[in-house]
Amino acid sequence: MRYELMLPHQIRKAIAEHWPVVLPLGVLEYHGEHMGVGMDTLAVIKTLELIEPEMDLVILPPFYYGAASYAVAPPEGTGTVQVGGNVLAPFAEALFHSLLRVGFRNIHAIIHHQTENFAAGMPTDLAFKSAGRQAIFRFLERESGEGWWGDEKMAAYYAEHEAGRNPFNWIRIHSLMSSETMADYPFDHAGQGETSLMLALCPEAVDMAKLGDNTGWYTATAKDASAELGAKGVALILKRLRTLLAPAG
Question: b/e map of 27-53 (b: 16 or more CB within 10 Å)?
Fold first, then answer.
């Protein structure tokens, strides 16, 4: 369900049943002359739309304004929008803390931008990862006071941890494509892989007639893109999302 359309009784049901609450997280970035600047975020939104009929989940309004960086191209005339991680972190902490106060305990953000370095982290995902941790600490202190972890009633903390009941799993950040997915599908920037994904998921964001206007090396393989290849990537992504978004607890 789309969060902005939910009625309070539906929100309470989602809380009681531990539905996953998912934030499509991304950027607006130049992806060559043949593809829309929202590609990274659209890939997340459109795959979530495909999985939405299969399971109970809440899809939050997407956040497009991440740290795109100007690594690919300067913004003038290309459309790239850059918001630094130092600005994103306070926003993300406030957002996550608010969602915890609503009552959600199965919160996810999914990102596609710069995730070839996901284990080490890049500005957008690092900002949201850190913010998630800070929001959980802030919420726990708000609910139970300082010293919550040292309280005697937390003596079973590590046993609870082992059983999968870990409050620091209330908020998790994921890449849209895992390293295993990338091994089975071309991972690139505006090349064959991403162009194929958009042809399969959001063809209105692609104009193959503009391929000849591209000058970047990173778009050279886009000529080999196809909706069929994109469908393969979508299937791999959906298989992973079904596991990641399985109901908690």
Answer: bbbbbbbbbbbbbbbbbbbbbbeebee
